[in-house]
Amino acid sequence: MKKLVLSFVVISQFAFAQFTDINIVKEIHTKEKGLVVSAHPLASEAGAKIMKLGGNAYDAVIATQYALAVVYPQAGNIGGGGFLVGVKNNGEKFTIDFRETAPEKSFRDMYLDKKGNANTDLSQNGRLAVGIPGSIAGFYATLKYGKLPMQKLIQPAIDLAEKGFAITEKEADLLNNQMEFFNQHNKNKTVFQKSTPWKQGDILIQKELAATLKLIQKDGAKAFYEGKTAQLIIDEMKRGNGIITLNDLKNYKVVERKPLTFNYKGNEIVSMPLPSSGGILLAQMLKMSSFENIEKYQQNSTPAVQIMVEAERRAFADRAEYMGDPGFIKDKTEMLISDDYLKNRWKSFNKNAATPSSEVGKIIPQPKESTETTHISIADKEGNAVAVTTTLNGLYGSKVVVSGAGFFLNNEMDDFSVKPGVPNMFGAVGGEANSIQPGKRMLSSMTPTIVLKNGKPYIIVGTPGGTTIPTSVYQSIVNVINFKLSPNMTVNTPKFHHQWLPETVMVENNFPETTISDLEKMNYKIERVSQIGRTEMIVIDGNGNAVAVADGRGDDSVGVE
């Protein structure tokens, strides 16, 4: 059985060779077919097409990521990085860390002025904000788990870039809103800039990006890290105050890490270890809320939300103090997720009132992490599963497009503690553990996660959203496992978020008013926001029946083999 929910078509007067039929599919029920959920219908279709050609989940995730670099330039990328969590059908679990790294010329106080004040404009915009991109290396590291050659996996993205595609209303609005920054930070005109406003149905053709992808198709990862594209990146650095060198690019390395795994309610959670804070936070929050038997309450009820908020508060306080690149700090994961430590952490929980953040951590400012990330969840008919979250950090990253190569560069350096105690662009505070050092990976909140039941993929989930990522994944898992919500309800129900500092609890605009009122009486400060994340989820039951749901908050879409 296959069930399609919600679709629309963008029609254009242009030639049919261009990608103008865009069907947004929000939910599919199927059995023994591969499923792809991503932020854009054309990217999901690219991944599904690869599985139809005989590829597996890992082939599909490479193709989907390349396609997102074309059709979702605000976050999909070859100029950024990310994390991948995979579970093979033989039970093998693995992760690929293709997070960006700090250039060799970077240093701890590089964004401070003469008075010692942090200049976050430099860490967030322009060429000095750029970390060494890891995406292409990550795609090649994934290739050994697939079945098809890279030349075939990259072709859908080349077609999309070369022929062009019709942009949606949301994409047009984003491009128009960012035009001032594109004009400010690019010395050569880019395809994203035009004299009249973008509108729904306009065709975006990216010839330079197509040429870059063709070079990778022909010469492999070296084309990006050592060839013509590398030189174009360096030329772009020289147009401003960028510090990335050819040596930085040539020496970039992916790291395959042991997944962070733990048991929750008889299920095995497989998530990302440091330098992602996500897996640790997820383990801490799930374990702490289990101390209160959260399933005895209703989803989004006052007691359930309070328990979860207080778990989030304690976890994020630990994030600020202890977490960073494990190659540069003492990795305290084992201690942080141990039952003894967490039970001690939970002793200060008061079911009648908010716990002041000053009582659960040293008040040090946190970096503010961008919400402009993107997530892909994929399951294939062979029993393989993959969750991958990638990012440029901010919306369109540094706003800088590599002239001649056609892609945006990240502004990932802002995810370091620019100055310990100073919030980053998303309000997260960081200490010395996440200070800037050459070659270091910046701490991240990305939380690609696979839940196993009886050793087989059960839930594949992730979301964009900066520091709201771990809390959204946490709520998604609790909604399915504890509150028994359907995948659609889980993804689209109103979310909330707390991160220790600031003290406020963010809630989406349609959050239950009675719960908000009750929390305010308990001294919680509530901040209403329009949106928290965009969750992509696949749930597979014990009989192999799969449900894939794309978040209703955006143009996110499901593709099926």
Low-pLDDT ranges:
6-16
Give me the number of helical elements: 18
Gap between N and C termini? 13 Å
Count of domains: 2
Helix/strand-derived class?
alpha+beta
Integer-rounded radius of gyration? 22 Å
| Fraction of residues in H or I helices | 25-40%
Strand order of the largest sheet: 1-18-17-13-12-9-8
User: Main beta sheet: strand number and arrangement?
Assistant: 7 strands, antiparallel
Report the count of strand segments: 19
Percent range for β-strand residues: 15-25%
Mean pLDDT rating: 94
Approximate shape: globular
Binding site for L-glutamate: 99, 391-393, 415, 444-445, 466
GO biological process, one term: glutathione biosynthetic process
Signal peptide: 1-17
Organism: Chryseobacterium salivictor
Question: What are the main properties of this structure?
Answer:
single chain; 561 residues; Serum Albumin, Chain A, Domain 1; 2 domains; seven-stranded antiparallel beta sheet; 18 helices; 32% helix; globular
Strand and helix map with partners:
Blueprint: E1 27-31, E2 35-38, H1 41-52, H2 57-71, E3 81-87, E4 93-98, H3 120-124, H4 135-142, H5 150-153, H6 155-163, E5 165-166, H7 169-185, E6 203-204, H8 207-219, H9 222-225, H10 228-238, H11 246-250, E7 255-257, E8 260-264, E9 267-271, H12 278-290, H13 302-322, H14 333-336, H15 339-346, E10 373-379, E11 385-391, E12 449-453, E13 456-462, H16 468-481, H17 487-492, E14 496-497, E15 505-508, H18 513-521, E16 526-529, E17 536-540, E18 545-550, E19 557-560
Overview of the structural elements:
- There is one protein chain.
- Helix 1 runs antiparallel to helix 2 (57-71) and helix 2 (57-71) packs parallel to helix 6.
- The chain is of the alpha+beta class and 561 residues long.
- Strand 15 (505-508), helix 18 (513-521) and strand 16 (526-529) form a beta-alpha-beta unit.
- 32% of the residues lie in helices and 16% in strands.
- The two termini are 13 Å apart.
- The model is unreliable at 6-16 (pLDDT under 50).
- It folds into two domains: 41-256 and 390-441, no CATH class; 280-370 and 456-560, Serum Albumin, Chain A, Domain 1.
- The strands form four sheets. A seven-stranded antiparallel β-sheet has the order 1-18-17-13-12-9-8. A seven-stranded antiparallel β-sheet has the order 7-4-3-11-10-2-19, covered by helices on one side.
- It contains 18 helices and 19 strands.
- It comes from Chryseobacterium salivictor.
- The active site is at 373 (nucleophile).
- L-glutamate binds at residues 99, 391-393, 415, 444-445, 466.
- Its EC number is 2.3.2.2, 3.4.19.13.
- One of its GO terms (molecular function) is glutathione hydrolase activity.
